[in-house]
Amino acid sequence: MSDAEHDVALEDTDRIHGRTALVRNVAAAISLSNAVRSTLGPRGMDKMLVDEEGNASVTNDGVTVLEKARVEHPTANLLIASSSSQDRSARDGTTTTVILMAEMLQNALELIRAGIHPSIIINGYRIANNKALEELDKISRNADNRVLKEAVVKTSLQGKIDSLLSKHLTELALNAAESLSDEDGGKDLERLRIKRIQISGGKALDCELLPALVLAKTKLIGKTSTFSDGGKVAIIDGAIEERKLSLDAQIEINELGALKDFQTRNEIYLREIVEHLGKLGVDLLIVRDGIADEAISILSEAGITAYRRFEREDLERLSKLTKTNMIRDVKKITKEDVGEYSSRSEENIGGINYTKIWGEFGGAMTVTIRGSTPEIRDEIGRAFDDALGVSHRLTKEGKILPGGGATQIHLARKLREYATTQSGREQMAIEGYAAALEIVPRTLAENAGYDPIDIVLSLSAAQSKKKQDGEWIGLNGNSGEILDMFKEEIFDPKFVVEHAITGATEAAISILRIDDVLWAKKGPETPDWSNQIEDN
Ligand code: ADP
Ligand code: MG
Q1: Whose CA is nearest to atom 15 of ligand 1?
Q2: Strand, coil or helix: what is 163?
Q3: Does 61 qualify as catalytic in the annotation?
Q4: What is the domain-level CATH number for residue 325?
Q5: 368 an active-site residue?
Q6: Is 217 among the domain residues?
Q7: Is residue 94 annotated as part of the catalytic site, yes or no?
Q8: Structurally, how many domains does the chain consist of?
């Protein structure tokens, strides 16, 4: 097709091209980064988010800011997706990912303006990324004891909550993660098995970790007590329902007495079920879906306490805690499927009834998130999520790196050295990449009120001056001193740093590849940017 034909084919499409497309995309990345950079580090500031109804919430969490902001630019959405992906897989390092990516793009744009083709930059960035990962392997250390792990988790909570609470949540998160250390399961295991429930009122320091399933529920009406100090439990992954009238039965019903007959049969069926449970010694019945009204009184007569309508995840947690198999059909339950709970109680807090079912077999737990307002509880919940995610991953892969910008300064130094061994143009790209990594110490310095250029220079100098372990020298963001991060106990998990650097590189590269933006015209008004990019 000739250009003219092209233009006809794209009549209903708006288009920006080449350099302009890149410049606009980079501008979007930078404005995104500007929106979150002030939250980075121990002295990062909070953001107040106000939704359409005027409800305000306060957060220090980069990804929360981005996910809640109504961002309409498609590039920005693409980049937010990479920050969300960081959140999903590493649970931390989301702000870092965004500011790194914006800086990589900005440096790339400068190189392009200097006449270097994007494909050379992409190549250089990939080389630099690989080299950086190799270097991370070399300088990482093992967090093989509890004290070190505590320090890592505490670093991840810096600036989010006060230090007393951060110590408390760190304890809870590490204990929760350790309870899962023998369990199989994917990366999200900690979210599946550790339940978080907000309970209104109380102080933040009242947050508790319990080897129990806690949920806002009341047992079905009946004679049984709201308290028990242990017994046998059955979990039904289905419902306890009356038998449905079949087609035949409907015809029969026209005959006198047939309905009565059916009801009697139904009751017999329900009684059989309950009798079966009784024989197995079950005194606590948990049902995922409904329990027929007729069955409730029969269960109560048999002394079985029943709860209905459970989330699948809660069933799994309870199943672990009490070593109970989840069974679809009640009649198929055997002795082996029945589990044991160690106690059960109900308590009314702030007008809501909470049931606690305790078990001794581990594999699941509940954290109660306390705090005076829903906003405070939300923010504590998010902080706990980060702490738990980091703790869980640390128990699997306990490698750590120095925080406070030390790692990035070291990488930048190494990459600059390495760049000289590469061909001219790629060399410039690798240097641009190295400079981009310094955005982390620069921003940490800026947010703590220090001069970013001074800090980066002093860090580089201090690292190169020291013969051994120089790479562990970083900025203590609280005191402004340049010290050994191991002694200061400021650590980042290796998987967080690794994922942030690689995620930022990938996102930057995907933007650099674009040299044409086309979008369908929706009419005379401005195009609708929303929902164009899937988050996955
Ligand atoms: P992110 O969303 O990227 O995790 P954070 O606000 O949690 O952003 O900041 C993480 C950065 O703060 C890491 O680079 C970490 O090394 C650094 N950091 C945390 N605590 C300190 C501290 N006390 N001094 C200096 N840097 C710190
Ligand atoms: Mg963090």
Answers
A1: 403
A2: helix
A3: yes
A4: 3.50.7.10
A5: no
A6: no
A7: yes
A8: 3
pLDDT at 380: 93
Does residue 528 form part of some domain? no
Q: Compute the C-alpha angle 271/274/277, nearest 5°.
A: 150
Write down the pLDDT at residue 267.
87
Answer with the residue of higher pLDDT: 457 or 8: 457
- Ligand 1 pocket member 159 (CB < 6 A): yes
In one-letter notation, the amino acid at residue 209 is L
Three-class secondary structure of residue 67 per DSSP: helix
For ligand 1, is residue 441 a contact (CB within 6 Å)? no
My answer on whether 391 and 423 are in the same domain is no
Determine the 3-state secondary structure of 50 from DSSP.
strand
Describe the crossing of helices 18-36 and 74-90 by its angle, rounded to 10 degrees. 50
pLDDT over 50 (residue 481): yes
Does residue 166 line the site of ligand 1, with CB under 6 A?
Answer: no
For residue 194, is it within any domain? yes
Q: Residue 310: which domain range?
A: 229-361
Same domain, 178 and 233: no
Closest ligand to the CA of 93: 1
CATH assignment of the domain containing 38: 1.10.560.10
What is the band of 375 on the pLDDT scale with cuts at 50, 70, 90? confident
Question: 56, 66, 82, 53: which is closest to 535 by C-alpha?
Answer: 82
How do residues 235-253 score in pLDDT, each as one tens digit? 999 999 876 655 555 555 5
Q: For residue 96, how far is its CA from the centre of ligand 1 (angstroms)? A: 8
Of 4-13, 55-64, 394-403, where does the model show the most confidence? 394-403
What pLDDT is stored for residue 250 in this prediction? Answer: 55
Ligand nearest to the CA of 405: 1
Q: Is the pTM of this model over 0.90?
A: no
Q: Is the CB of 492 under 6 A from ligand 1?
A: yes
Q: What is the mean pLDDT of the chain?
A: 88
Report the CATH number that the domain containing residue 160 is assigned in CATH: 3.30.260.10
Query: Could you tell me the distance, in angstroms and rounded to a whole number, from the CA of residue 195 to the centre of ligand 1?
Result: 27
Domain membership flag for residue 536: no
My answer on whether 357 and 236 are in the same domain is yes
Residue 4 vs residues 11, 20, 401, 457, 513: alpha-carbon distances, Å = 11, 21, 56, 54, 25
